[in-house]
Design goal:
The chain is mostly helical. The chain contains 15 helices and seven strands. A hairpin with a 4-residue loop joins strand 3 and strand 4. The termini are far apart. About 20% of the residues have low confidence.
Length: about 400
């Protein structure tokens, strides 16, 4: 075989290899497309108008069901803007990868969703367990709060378009099955002591006073709503008493900063502190860059307001509108940190808690520190420019509106 024949043979082998590669690539793409079509067929797409609180159930939705679906997965419509400000309802949706095991194969996959909707109905508070007349003022305040939030959500609800998972919607909600309550955790608004109370209610502890901070936050004793299957989530959303405790947004923000950045912290300093100092402190010394300690409040606010943050958001300063979705989940009880003790003890009566169980009065950590009050907040805000104060208020604008807090003097 001469050199020319060798060259032609090598060339033919190369062409054959190229053709084989192109064929295999086309086959793989075809298989991927077929898989995508099957997955798409397994999705329930629903075009859904979010109802204002209290709207009759039948008016709540309109379904569009593709042909050939086999696995229920719901998409809730949503938009990302409202009057130029942050979305008041956030990213919302409902979805499930698993179907109810007891469902018969011959049954329509949509049959269970008849009568299921978001948000669940706003229930009248059951006051069977409330004894004595001393709760009358607190009850009146509670009804006003519920009515105010209901009015806000009815006014600003609109057609929305977005797909995501139900687990995102309920990921901050803790479940206590014995007394049938759901608690949406808002950090820096009494959440540590509320989780202690839930542990007592569920029989995991005898007294809230003996439960350590680490047991509360790292013990994983309490179950979250997103750990249940679809039926379990919807059953509890519709049947249990749902409650939330909120706090003046600026007070909550300053409280979070003091807790995480003014005390030694093995997580927030290296993860958030280092990134904040590196981006926002000019001529930062080597020690600060290495440890992340000593973040200033102004630097923290620069991070918060930055659309290109060097590190992501955190639940301790995330907006309540994005933690608990108050216009999608109708909370039966709205407590406030400013009236924490009386609101909490009234709620415990409402759900039939043991008579000797009272909401703890102690501060979870840094007990020697002065509580973050209006005056303390005022001192921190002095470190900011007028523009930074206004932008910070804008950041929490919806939280101020939803829960009827007075806007700060910026």
């Amino acid at each position: 075989m001469n050199l020319r024949q060798v060259f032609v043979s090598v060339l033919l082998f190369g062409v054959a290899g190229l053709l084989l590669f192109m064929y295999l690539q086309a086959w793989i793409e075809e298989q991927h497309t077929e898989s995508g079509k099957k997955l798409q067929q397994e999705t329930i797409n629903q075009d859904f108008t979010l109802q204002p609180l209290g709207m009759p159930r039948k008016a709540a939705w309109r379904r569009i069901v593709p042909v050939g679906l086999s696995n229920p997965e719901m998409a809730v419509s949503s938009s990302r803007h409202w009057q130029g400000r942050a979305d008041p309802f956030g990213v919302v949706a409902a979805s499930s990868r698993s179907w109810l095991p007891e469902q018969k194969m011959s049954e329509s996959p949509l049959s269970w969703f008849r009568g299921v909707y978001l948000p669940p109905a706003l229930h009248p508070l059951n006051k069977t367990f409330v004894k004595g007349g001393e709760w009358q003022d607190i009850d009146s305040t509670q009804e006003k709060r519920r009515a105010f939030l209901q009015g806000f959500c009815r006014k600003h609800n609109s057609r929305r378009k977005l797909q995501t998972h139900l687990v995102h919607l309920v990921s901050r909600i803790y479940v206590e099955d014995r007394h049938k309550v759901l608690y949406c955790e808002v950090p820096k608004a009494g959440c540590s002591n509320w989780k202690r109370v839930l542990m007592v209610l569920s029989g995991l502890a005898v007294s809230a006073n003996n439960i350590s901070h680490d047991d509360v936050h790292y013990g994983k004793h309490l179950r979250k709503l997103d750990s249940y299957d679809l039926k379990g989530i919807y059953t509890r959303l519709n049947m249990y008493t749902k409650f939330i405790f909120v706090r003046d947004p600026m007070e909550r923000l300053v409280s979070a900063f003091r807790d995480k950045f003014e005390h030694p912290n093995s997580y927030y300093h290296p993860v958030f502190g280092k990134a904040i100092i590196k981006k926002y402190r000019h001529n930062a010394d080597e020690e600060a860059l290495k440890t992340g300690s000593g973040v200033k409040f102004k630097e923290f606010i620069q991070y918060l307001l930055d659309s290109h943050r060097p590190v992501g958001m955190d639940i301790h300063w995330e907006q309540v509108s994005k933690l608990c979705y108050p216009c999608l989940i109708n909370y039966d009880f709205i407590g406030k940190f400013e009236t924490l003790e009386e609101d909490a003890n009234y709620f415990l009566q409402l759900v039939g808690a043991p008579a000797n169980l009272k909401f703890p009065k102690f501060k979870d950590r840094h007990s020697s520190d002065e509580r973050t009050s209006t005056e303390v907040v005022r001192q921190y805000l002095k470190e900011l420019s007028k523009e930074e104060r206004q932008l910070t208020y804008d950041f929490y604008y919806l939280d101020y509106l939803m829960f009827n807090y007075t806007s700060p003097l910026v």
